[in-house]
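If you are new to this repository, start here. Below is one unmodified record pulled from the training split, so you can see the exact layout before writing a loader.
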Amino acid sequence: MKKLLLLAAVAAAGYVVYTKFVQDRDERDLWAEVTDTFE
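And here is the target side for that same chain:
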């Protein structure tokens, strides 16, 4: 039972880290698009 709870906790932590990474990447892409020089 403890292994299952540990696995669930690791999966939840991984999901949170992944969503944070995706959110940060999207924000960087948005800033890059906004701050690109206009030609």
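Two things worth knowing about this chain: The radius of gyration is 17 Å. The longest helix spans residues 2-35.
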